[in-house]
Amino acid sequence: MPNNKINPPPLRQVSLRRLLALCRKESYQIVRDPSSILIAFVLPIILLFIFGYGINLDTNRVKLGLVQLDPGAEAQNFSTVLMASPFLEIHKLPSRSAMQEQVRMGVVRGMVVINSDFSATVRQGQSHAQDPGQGQVSIQLLTDGSEPNTANFLSSYVQGALQIWQLQRVSDQGLPPPQMIALEPRYWFNPSTISRNYLVPGSISVIMTVIGALLTSLVVAREWERGTMEALLSTSVTRTELLLSKILPYYLLGIIAMLLCVVVATQLLVIPFRGSLWVLFIISSLFLGSGLGLGLFLSTITRNQFVAAQLALTAAFLPATMLSGFVFEIASMPRVIQVVSTLVPARYFVSALQTLFQAGDVWPVLLQNILYLFLSAVFWLGLTAIKTSRRLDGS
Hints:
elongated, 4-stranded mixed β-sheet, 15 helices, abc type-2 transporter like fold, mainly alpha
């Protein structure tokens, strides 16, 4: 009997010649597209300078209002100590109500009130030194609680000024200073305690998210909109060759952008880098795998550049900014949000970059981040390969 069974077509092997031709074609499109060059090389520099200089979490100079209702010498000495603080910018007004209005308007972040009996109470405390209940001095500090961090900083600065004033009084009276515990703080990994040193490495993850997801989200959709995808599908190009031709040029573009970011961060912004470059290369490559895979996946399923770009911004850029620990501490988030943040690849890239820049090759931290980034890259690239079809109907 005749055999009516239809044999499936043989699997075509990947041709290096076809792959190089497709990569060359994609490279020409990148060079001829001004938006790709702008996003890959100009936007990273702009974002780095914005994050490096425009965003500053350091509170080095806080505006503080001072209402001195006591003209006495003790009150004058305390106000002099306040004005000498390098962390405080003092604004003096003679009226409590006028200063409260300044606080409400946001001109100052808080106010210190020195009551009219301040000097008399201090002198009374000297004459009743044996009675701790006599001569207790109180200074009122009102802060703007709408910004809790600034309010806490302001409280610490005023308390520090108060301690300096007390030590100066003891020294002026010729008395030995009180026995106190000497606290010697030491800051590891970021001795200067400058927020830019951890904001800039975190911002690089946001920039690489834009490079990886936003650019590749336009690649396949652009082919469908221009009608060139039909021409590609009519050739002997395999699915693997098609995917690699879309990934490799943008991977190279992403690595160059990453190198540019590191050079700008270390040379222009003077951010210390204590890790190994080859570790940075591996981690960056894995993160680019996640970003490229996500962008190609969105481009493949939408076939529309505008929709794909909007989805890329929503699915990649916003989570990388909000849920990666780049600005907002993950441990301070609600438990549900912490669980959601584990699905964001930028969380592990931010942790790895901050470790490499500030601490060096801390392998217990880096290996964990490398593992998660590898799994994320495999997931998104694999999902893109599954959804990529050589049929016009997408099946």
